[in-house]
């Protein structure tokens, strides 16, 4: 009884596999390949068993998928230059800024990144208390902002006039105070005297 001629198991493909059953490998049969997740096929992915009991056709290659370069972020940088499937990039903010969002992203099998790029927002130093008998001119309290102190009429500033929000989230210097303005002691008069010892304004 004549037996149909057949081929041995089809050749293996790194990062790929044969689709469907491999029970019928007779001459003339075809097999199709598929790449594993995260890999894409080059060539046709089809081979057939020829009369010489061997496989013919173009043995496919499965190459790792690459994602497009991730979007950059303002006031920050991206660490990592490998954009292939399964690799990770990390985000880092410049000095004086803090990260809002996910600090990393992974290249996925669908050629997209796992997370949206984060934002780098200026660090906040928090609002300052007004000095007694004075106030503060301020428009912002984030990194790089400068505030200026002032005193009400009859008072003068003792200490620094301005402070700056630093990259560590703290204000530079110490808060000044407002002290009463003092006049110099009045001159003496002939054949008379002055009454009082408080030389402050008012």
TrEMBL record:
One of its GO terms (cellular component) is membrane. Keywords: Disulfide bond, Glycoprotein, Membrane, Repeat, Signal, Sushi. PROSITE patterns: SUSHI. Disulfide bonds join 35-62, 93-120, 151-178. SUPFAM superfamilies: Complement control module/SCR domain. InterPro entries: SEZ6_CSMD_C4BPB_Regulators (IPR051277), Sushi/SCR/CCP_sf (IPR035976), Sushi_SCR_CCP_dom (IPR000436). Coiled coil: none annotated. Residues 5-64, 65-122, 123-180 form the Sushi domain. It is found in: Membrane. It comes from the Eukaryota. CDD domains: CCP (cd00033). It holds the Pfam family Sushi. Residues 1-20 are annotated as: Disordered. This is Sushi, von Willebrand factor type A, EGF and pentraxin domain-containing protein 1.
């Amino acid at each position: 009884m004549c037996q149909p001629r057949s081929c041995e198991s089809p050749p293996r493909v790194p990062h790929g596999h044969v689709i469907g059953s491999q029970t019928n490998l007779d001459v003339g049969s075809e097999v199709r390949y598929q790449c594993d997740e995260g890999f894409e096929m080059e060539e046709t992915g089809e081979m057939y068993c020829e009369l010489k009991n061997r496989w013919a056709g173009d043995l496919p290659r499965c190459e790792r998928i690459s994602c497009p370069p991730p979007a950059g972020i303002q006031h920050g940088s991206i660490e990592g230059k490998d954009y292939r499937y399964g690799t990770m990039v990390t985000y880092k903010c410049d000095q004086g800024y803090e990260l809002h969002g996910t600090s990393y992203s992974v290249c996925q099998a669908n050629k997209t990144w796992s997370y949206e790029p984060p934002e780098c927002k200026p660090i906040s130093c928090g609002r300052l208390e007004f000095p007694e008998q004075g106030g503060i001119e301020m428009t912002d309290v984030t990194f790089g902002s400068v505030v200026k102190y002032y005193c009400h009429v009859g008072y003068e500033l003792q200490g620094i006039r301005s402070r700056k929000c630093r990259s560590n989230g703290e204000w530079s210097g110490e808060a000044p105070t407002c002290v009463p303005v003092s006049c110099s002691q009045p001159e003496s008069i002939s054949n008379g005297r002055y009454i009082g010892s408080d030389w402050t304004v008012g």
